[in-house]
């Protein structure tokens, strides 16, 4: 039978033509969807058109109008609205949008100019039109033009728009509030990128975040669609960066010199006018009045943009004396957790889903008031999760404690002999020392150090890592208190005031405040002796006197450094100890300081990297200390 069928098939044609089975245009049947999707190109004032997706819940109609919540993104708007390929809007959009979907809002996602479906030129976090952006367009004008189009062309819209987004999308959210469209009624930036040199994605106090930055730049700028992805070739970035030598050498080996933003930041390693003129907090501080109510949301353990949220609040709060328009919320979150789920971070567990609670109980009533005329909620001016105690705290003034002009006064905690830490200044003593060797830099977390994009990297947790891996090194100084006999609360910004010398002519200083758990924790044995990093940062010595004008350090001279650390709201519980660790590298996340002064560390030659003897002074008149924002326990 088989043979005879074969003969027949060969003998005569069964079909005459074989057209493509894929139609010219397929119309999906979306009858079961609880929303409709419109895909439009919205023209900007310079003629450039931006790809925009408008997702309209079935509940919104010409007669039952709804507000619009908009996000402008460099991360592929089409992909952002396909979290799950689902007929339900709640599942399709990012988790950040959950409460706005439940409230029946229209959701809009737009590609920023130059990315994915949008036309135009791409510039990294395009600065406001002005000294560092000679064009007439920026994210403020693009947001304005988009909102103008939306309220005129979406018949289901109630004419009110809110903006929301995190990190880069937080940046575009903040920018939408500059010379805002009258229909923009409220903005919720999560972890906005505010100052890339001071403490957000690119540098921290002048030290370059090579381990994250190079990859971001490559993936974002090599193509419009992100087709090329950064690669290492080594599993452990510690090896990769050590072999490369400098950040500049690593960048060159991957062709980054073709990318405009890499060229720009490698030409501006100092805090010169190029950076100052795009620092969002400084620019917004110049705006005469607050036109758009804003809820600024930050994470206490944000591994990418930890600086931005409190800095923006600091710039804007003075313009809102009654605390009705500018709010700050800080949760126990890493970068992105506030937009997702906040039950735990690394080894830490919190009281329930702190992020979901925040969005439904705090953010959504705030949005509904401005976008739907819901009653004004009692939104606290400042709401911060208190780690260690695991509860939310409300404040009228933030920071709560500091050296001058806060409700409570901070206390000096001194580095003392014998690795002790205490509240009495030293009456005798000299210094502690270690050798910092650029050939064996201190890893920022236990090796292997995986790329941030690797799901196993634990990148999002490292700011609460156990610091025992560092404590046992000879190039890390460790100071600690006795076990506390009573709780100690801190609420504000710790500042390290160090007297330190180096035998080199440049140096980095890393300061870490750590909560050391009791030797035994019967309820969770793995936490016994856990050295939980609480607040830590790096400072590049050459910027000691002037961030814009780096200078060599006088070798072997005890120089004074003032190093601001990330904000805290924490209780050190009885039985815990407070620890401070000091070291001179945090590799490979931060590039190595060669410890010889060179014009641009990005391009330091191998011969410039030298060992240096580092001294931390704890002597009368030269007493290194931490200004700790201690507050009274209730
Ligand atoms: N931290 C990321 C970023 C912000 C700004 C510029 C480049 C990268 C982000 O999560 O969007």
Automatic annotation (TrEMBL):
Question: Any idea which UniProt keywords this protein has?
Answer: Hydrolase
GO function terms (MF aspect): hydrolase activity
Q: Which SUPFAM superfamilies match?
A: alpha/beta-Hydrolases (SSF53474), Galactose-binding domain-like (SSF49785)
Q: Please state every residue range assigned to the domain named Xaa-Pro dipeptidyl-peptidase C-terminal.
A: 364-627
Output the SMART domains linked to this UniProt entry. PepX_C (SM00939)
* InterPro entries in the cross-refs: AB_hydrolase_fold, CocE/Ser_esterase, Galactose-bd-like_sf, Xaa-Pro-like_dom, Xaa-Pro_dipept_C, Xaa-Pro_dipeptidyl-ppase/CocE
PANTHER family for this protein: COCE_NOND FAMILY, PUTATIVE (AFU_ORTHOLOGUE AFUA_7G00600)-RELATED, PEPTIDASE S9 PROLYL OLIGOPEPTIDASE
**NCBIfam families registered for this protein in UniProt:** CocE_NonD (TIGR00976)
Q: Give the protein name, as stated in the record.
A: CocE/NonD family hydrolase
Upper taxonomic lineage: Bacteria, Pseudomonadati, Pseudomonadota, Gammaproteobacteria, Steroidobacterales
């Amino acid at each position: 039978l088989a043979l005879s069928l074969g003969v027949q098939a060969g003998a005569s044609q069964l079909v005459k033509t074989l057209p493509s089975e894929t139609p010219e245009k397929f119309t999906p049947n979306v009858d079961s969807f609880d929303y409709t999707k419109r895909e439009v190109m919205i023209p900007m004032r310079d003629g450039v058109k931006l790809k925009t997706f408008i997702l309209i819940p079935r509940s919104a109609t010409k007669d039952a109008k709804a507000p619009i919540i908009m996000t402008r993104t460099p991360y592929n708007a089409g992909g952002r609205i396909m979290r799950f390929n689902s007929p339900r809007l709640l599942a399709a959009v990012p988790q950040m949008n959950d409460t706005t979907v439940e409230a029946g809002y229209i959701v809009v996602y737009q590609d920023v100019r130059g990315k994915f479906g949008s036309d135009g030129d791409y510039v990294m976090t395009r600065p406001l039109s002005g000294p560092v952006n000679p064009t007439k367009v920026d994210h403020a004008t693009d947001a304005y033009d988009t909102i103008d189009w939306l309220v005129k062309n979406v018949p289901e819209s109630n004419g009110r728009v809110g903006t929301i987004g995190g990190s880069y999308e937080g940046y575009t959210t903040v920018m939408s509030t500059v010379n805002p469209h009258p229909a923009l009624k409220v903005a919720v930036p999560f972890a906005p990128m505010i100052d890339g040199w001071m403490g957000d994605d690119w540098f921290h106090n002048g030290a370059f975040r090579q381990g994250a930055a190079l990859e971001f730049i490559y993936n974002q700028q090599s193509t419009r669609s992100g087709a090329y992805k950064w690669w290492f070739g080594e599993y452990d970035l510690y090896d990769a960066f050590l072999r490369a030598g400098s950040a500049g050498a690593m960048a060159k080996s991957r062709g980054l010199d073709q990318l405009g933003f890499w060229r720009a930041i490698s030409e501006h390693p100092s805090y010169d006018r190029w950076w100052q003129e795009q620092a969002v907090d400084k620019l917004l501080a110049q705006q005469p009045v607050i036109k758009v109510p804003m809820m600024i949301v930050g994470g206490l353990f944000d591994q990418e943009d930890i600086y931005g949220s409190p800095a923006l609040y600091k710039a804007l709060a003075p313009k809102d004396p009654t605390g009705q328009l500018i709010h700050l919320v800080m949760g126990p979150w890493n970068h992105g957790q506030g937009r997702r789920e906040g039950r735990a971070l690394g080894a830490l567990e919190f009281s329930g889903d702190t992020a979901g609670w925040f969005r439904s109980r705090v953010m959504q009533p705030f949005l509904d008031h401005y976008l739907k005329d819901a009653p004004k909620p009692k939104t606290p001016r400042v709401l911060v999760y208190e780690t260690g105690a695991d509860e939310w705290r409300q404040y009228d003034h933030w920071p709560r404690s500091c050296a001058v002009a806060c409700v409570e006064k901070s206390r000096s905690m001194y580095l003392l002999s014998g690795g002790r830490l205490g509240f009495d200044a030293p009456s005798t003593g000299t210094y502690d020392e270690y050798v910092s060797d650029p050939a064996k830099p201190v890893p920022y977390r236990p090796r292997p150090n995986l790329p941030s994009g690797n799901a196993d990297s634990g990148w999002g947790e490292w700011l609460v890592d156990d610091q025992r891996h560092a404590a046992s090194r000879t190039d890390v100084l460790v100071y600690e208190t006795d076990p506390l006999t009573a709780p100690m609360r801190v609420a504000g910004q710790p500042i390290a005031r160090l007297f330190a010398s180096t035998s080199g002519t440049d140096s980095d200083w890393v300061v870490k405040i750590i909560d050391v758990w009791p030797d035994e924790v019967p309820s969770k044995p793995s936490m016994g002796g856990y050295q939980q990093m609480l607040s830590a940062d790096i400072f590049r010595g050459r910027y000691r006197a002037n961030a814009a004008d780096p200078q060599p350090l006088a070798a072997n001279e005890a120089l004074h450094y003032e190093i601001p650390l990330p904000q805290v709201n924490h209780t050190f519980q009885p039985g815990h100890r407070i620890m401070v660790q000091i070291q001179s590298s945090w590799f490979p996340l931060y590039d190595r300081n060669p410890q010889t002064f060179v014009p641009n560390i990005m391009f330091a030659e191998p011969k410039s990297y030298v060992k240096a003897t580092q001294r931390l002074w704890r002597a009368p008149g030269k007493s290194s200390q931490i200004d700790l924002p201690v507050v009274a326990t209730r």
